[in-house]
Amino acid sequence: MNLPFDEFAVRDWQTTDDPGTVRVAMIGVGWWTREQAIPAVQEAAFVDTTVLVSGSKRKAQEAAALAPTIERGITYDEFHDGDATGAYDAVYVCTPNGLHLPFVETAARLGKDVLCEKPMEATVERAREIVDLAADGDVNVMIAYRMQTEPAVRRAKEVVAEGVIGDPVQVHGNMSQRLLELIPDPDQWRLDPDLSGGATVMDLGLYPINTARFVLDADPVAVQARTTHSRGAFEDVGDEHAAFTLVFPEGIYAACTASQGAYRSSHLRVTGTDGEVAIDPAFFNPQDRAFRISTGGERYDVDFPQVNQMTEEFDYFAHCLLTETDPHPDADHGFVDMLTMDAVYHADRLDETVRLQVR
Fold first, then answer.
1. CA 37, CA 266: separation in Å to the nearest integer?
2. Tens of pLDDT along the chain (359 residues)?
3. Any idea where the domains of the chain sit in the sequence?
4. Which of 23, 27, 173, 330 shows its CA 20 to 30 Å from the CA of 270?
């Protein structure tokens, strides 16, 4: 069998070894920025963090010690006023979901390209405004789907496209964790519907949704769903646990589950007429991914070098800017996920199948 694994972790998107460096201002200095994004950029080849932006100037300035390249720590208001624009070329927006839009608006006004964390926003309406900004301006807006630059996922996409497993029939995806053990605060923003848009579908369910879309190179046309919660902290958002089915063209079904109150687990499997490709674990950056193909009565477990998904994502974004290549996933792509997750919540409330027209 001819499998595309000789150079499993190769950056198939990279066209030059030394395109230059993009200086990034990171907006939002929460634990993800401090513990994941800043260290990832320190490992990157084409990016430097030079500015931190926070609601607290003291917090931004103290976090500046996390990397020697960081020159300035400024407040949100100072960012909106245009302070330090000469010290960065692009921005990484990592605030709560419902606060993404104003920072993308300001970045567009300042002529700065944007890497915006997923989901794009807390509501479809606000996400549509980001789409319009990306369409009307001269800046690039990339949505931070780190799975799309994960080599295991890119190889899975190749396996499906090359027909190694025959015609895809089913996708199974799961992501779960115990949120209140990771962040023991019932008043955190992920449990505030105005800031998050939803606790589980928007935070974890998005991973199997978007990764299925990427691997299949297709968008869903209908959704069925059920969500529930068992603890009071989730009462306002409603979705502590979620199960939903995405219907894709050609009769492909993706059965997805997600939970903020279950054992930490993640996987993605695509089953075809002649075989299966599986990534398990799949979605947590600190976990080593495992890749398996089963076909023709044989099972192939593929060992490959692990990567920091965030480093891959930042380097890809910077490489696109430096080589004047349109980055993907763009705002239009991210908006399809917003429509899909909105349909998940509607399908749950209505207890019926919700049709999607995403294009």
1. 21
2. 556 566 787 899 999 999 999 999 999 999 999 999 999 999 999 999 999 999 999 999 999 999 999 999 999 999 999 999 999 999 999 999 999 999 999 999 999 999 999 999 999 999 999 999 999 988 999 999 999 999 999 999 999 999 999 999 999 999 999 999 999 999 999 999 999 999 999 999 999 999 999 999 999 999 999 999 988 999 999 999 999 999 999 999 999 999 999 999 999 999 999 999 999 999 999 889 999 999 999 999 999 999 999 999 999 999 999 999 999 999 999 999 999 999 999 999 999 999 998 66
3. 22-146, 151-306+329-355
4. 330
> Whose CA is closest to 151, among 308, 329, 8?
8
* Encoded tokens for 216: 């299949």
Fold of 151-306+329-355: Dihydrodipicolinate Reductase; domain 2 (3.30.360)
Dihedral angle at the C-alpha atoms of 344, 282, 147, 302, nearest 10 degrees?
-140
Burial of 65 (0-12, 13-18, 19+ CB in 10 A): exposed
Topology (CATH) of 22-146? Rossmann fold (3.40.50)
**Cut 0.85: pTM above it:** yes
**Coil, strand or helix at 66:** helix
Residue 176: other Cβ atoms inside 10 A? 20
E strands along the chain, which residues?
A: 22-27, 47-54, 72-75, 90-93, 113-116, 141-143, 168-178, 222-228, 241-248, 252-259, 261-272, 275-279, 291-295, 298-302, 354-355
From the number of C-beta atoms within 10 Å of its C-beta (0-12, 13-18, 19+), residue 217 rates as exposed
